[in-house]
Amino acid sequence: MIYTLTLNPAVDYYIDMNTLKEGELNNINNAYTLAGGKGINVSKVLKNFNIENKAILLAGGFTGHFIKTDLELYNIESKIIELDNNTRINIKLKTQNNETEIAGKSPDISVEKINQLIELIDNLLKDNDILVLAGSVPYSIGNDIYSKIIKKVKENKNIKIILDARDEAFKLAVGEKVFLTKPNSKELSEYFNRSIETKEDIIKYAKELIKDGSENVIISLGKEGSILITSNNEVYYGNAPHGKLISSVGCGDSMVAGIVYGISSGFDIVESYKYAIASGSSTAFSEGLTTFENMKNILQKVKIEKI
Fold first, then answer.
1. Number of separate helices (H) and strands (E) present in the chain
2. Residue 190 class from Cβ within 10 Å (0-12 exposed, 13-18 middle, 19+ buried)?
3. Quick one: which H or E segment has residue 112?
4. Taking the CA atoms of the chain, what radius of gyration do you get in angstroms?
């Protein structure tokens, strides 16, 4: 079974408008609301690909109820630790020239709730399951939360961990050995606390990340494509297929879903990488998260070159 964990979910309020004038009344062209969070997005894309999975999350209040209902509409089974406070609301604002995000404040989460979460995850997971740890850590939770979860589930089980996080939580988790990480070039620079810009440096430091505990690494380069470094230090460059950009929201999460799709379908890491690229690109060219059909149409445009 595949499980996704979202520690910091949100109700995402998407707004489309021509221009934003600060200090004035603004009119919008369109708006809609979805359950958001990196792990939730991964779950939704996997479901679009007809891959069964379960979403684990911390959520509460009327916004938490909205998220639970949204997942039910997707026929995604959720395992929720109920919080006393409302889950946050994020604003995703798109104008003619820019995309702007406003992140809402996370609810307070007690130590008791975190202990319940870790116990829940440990009880759910079985040998050979896949666990996707994705997204930011709420301010009231220690940055060691991902590393604690990894330690617990890997005590006596063979679990593939896919980590898509950043900052201190990422650093602590990588050291516990994970199957895959997916930083972008900026996040790689943050991890090593140095400017990493050239492909040569990106490859060099991605290999250092493998030494630190990530069995495989995908470095996202945006419109410049991406780079995969495997556990045996093989390096592959993947292109960024051409298409009309509609929104970059969810592209990284779709890449994670694509590689999970490949792995769960029995493909090797390089073949799975093709699905990651196609999934991320397809979401960029779509209104919302990619469908399986749209991803398959992009797949034929994906080109991977061994470096």
1. 10, 14
2. middle
3. helix 111-124
4. 19
Q: How far is CA 201 from CA 96, 197, 198, 228, in A?
A: 35, 7, 5, 14
How far apart are the C-alpha atoms of 282 and 294, rounded to whole Å? 6
* Residue 245 confidence (pLDDT) above 90: no
Reduced to 3 states (helix: H, G, I; strand: E, B; else coil), residue 10 is strand
Q: Residue 141: what are its φ and ψ, rounded to 5°?
A: -110, 140
Catalytic residues, by residue number, are 253
pLDDT band, very low/low/confident/very high, at 200 (cuts 50, 70, 90): very high
Are 12 and 32 in contact by the 8 Å Cβ rule? The answer is: no
- Residue 126 CA to residue 255 CA, distance in Å, equals 24
- Cα 110 to Cα 38, 118, 120, 152, 283: the distances in Å are 22, 13, 15, 19, 35
Q: Report the pLDDT value the prediction gives residue 246, as an integer from 0 to 100.
A: 83
Average pLDDT over residues 130-149: 96
